[in-house]
Amino acid sequence: MKDTNLQSLEQVRRQFAAEGVSVNQWAKARGYRPRTVYAVLSGQLMCSRGASHQIAVALGLKSPPKHAFLAE
């Protein structure tokens, strides 16, 4: 079942522009490497695990894990 609250890559890019926040600022404020965030936003990473998955969840591109032990 697909989560209808998820955003597309283009929607996230537009949101950065609308809010006047750079990807670099957003990444550093949350403890992520800007290079990894840019790779997520460009579609270069599959975001299936690790930091790229966490970034995709934080950006609203993917749903958070359903099981508590996977969220840690």
Describe the fold and architecture:
With 72 residues, the protein is an all-alpha fold. It has one domain. 56% of the residues lie in helices and 0% in strands. It has helices at residues 9-19, 23-29, 34-41, 50-59, 68-71. It is globular, with a radius of gyration of 12 Å. The two termini are 23 Å apart. 10% of the residues are buried.
The low-confidence runs, each spanning 5 or more residues with pLDDT under 50, are none
Mean pLDDT: 90
Radius of gyration: 12 Å
Report how far the terminal alpha carbons are from each other.
23 Å
Q: Helix coverage percent of residues?
A: 55-70%
Strand portion: under 5%
Number of strands: 0
- What is the chain-wise order of helices and strands? HHHHH
Number of helices: 5
Determine the oligomeric state from the structure. single chain
Supply the helix-strand structural class: mainly alpha
The main pleated sheet reads as:
none
- Note the overall shape: globular
Q: What count of structural domains? A: 1
